[in-house]
Structure formats: structure tokens, C-alpha cells
Design a protein that fits this description.
mainly alpha
Length: 171
């Protein structure tokens, strides 16, 4: 590490003071939170919870949402997800045998929907997901991906502080 790299690093506490939370949107707009929670609950039905967490983690990585990453990595660990899979989810295509074909299809669809600015969701990606999910599951998978993208945008915009960082202050 160079001297400039060492001096450019900040502690979580220092970073929050210059990049801290902007507002508590959920307190100011509780009906929005209730609506998002209802949408999230509906999206989660008919979807394997492991796939749901993988999707939430991958979208949150792409969207750089520390709040959601902290939450969903914690939830995945509580569900028994292996650290190796969590470590390599960002490189799932380069991790042969680590993710099932169904999980890979869900992750590919997650990336396509999350990165809409790169173009439309490709037919090949959609067909791949449709091969592994029945129509009801696929509808819920799409809704789950859209829900986590919405949560990410709320949390990133308001600069929500991840629970683990809040807890670090209390230690």
C-alpha cells in the first residue's frame, strides 16, 4: 500500500460524517414504507428464499447499496448460506458448480433487469429463467428483482447507514 492509499482511507465513523444519512424517508413517508413492504412481501411469495436472498445480494452489489448488502448478507448467513458462495456471488459466472443452473438463471435475470441502461432484458436471459421457473415463480422472481432495486434506490439516495456500522459505533 502506498502512502497516499493509506492516508486516503477513512474509518466508517469518519466516512459517515462526510457521507452520512440524509433523511429518514420511512419516518417522513410511512405510507411509502408500508407500500414497499407489502410489495416486497407479495414478491417473496412462491419464490425459494435462498434464490430470493441471492437476487437481493447481487442487485445490491451492482447498485452499491451498503445498507441492503449488510442486511441480506446477514440474512443469508442466518439461513445457512456458505461464506464461499457469498464471497463469490459477484463472480457467479466464473464459479462453476457453486451455483445451481436455476440460481444462475435467476442471477443472470437479476443483472439484466438491474442494468437496464445497458439495453433491454435479452430474450436469451429471459428464456433461460423461464426454463427453470414456472410462470408463477418467474413472475415473483421478476417482482423480487424490481423490489430490491427499488429498496436499493431508496437506501442509496437517503444514504441509509447499514445496521452493522451503527452497531460498530455502539461497541
Amino acid at each position: 500500500m502506498t502512502t497516499s492509499q493509506a492516508t486516503s482511507r477513512t474509518t466508517p465513523q469518519e466516512n459517515r460524517s462526510t457521507h452520512g444519512p440524509r433523511m429518514n424517508l420511512w419516518k417522513l413517508a410511512p405510507a411509502v414504507y408500508q407500500g414497499m413492504s407489502a410489495f416486497q412481501g407479495a414478491a417473496s411469495k412462491e419464490l425459494d428464499p435462498v434464490i430470493g436472498e441471492l437476487v437481493k445480494i447481487r442487485a445490491s452489489q451492482i447498485n452499491k447499496c451498503a445498507f441492503c448488502l449488510d442486511m441480506h448478507l446477514t440474512d443469508a448467513r442466518k439461513m445457512g448460506e456458505s461464506q464461499l458462495r457469498l464471497d463469490l456471488i459477484a463472480a457467479w459466472e466464473e464459479s462453476p458448480g457453486l451455483f445451481t443452473e436455476k440460481e444462475q438463471a435467476a442471477l443472470a435475470l437479476t443483472e439484466a433487469i438491474t442494468l437496464l441502461t445497458d439495453g433491454f432484458v435479452p430474450d436469451e436471459v429471459y428464456r433461460r429463467a423461464a426454463e427453470h421457473f414456472d410462470e408463477t415463480e418467474l413472475a415473483h422472481l421478476i417482482a423480487q428483482i424490481i423490489a430490491i432495486n427499488a429498496w436499493n434506490r431508496f437506501q442509496v439516495t437517503t444514504r441509509a447507514v447499514p445496521a452493522s456500522l451503527k452497531n460498530a459505533d455502539e461497541e
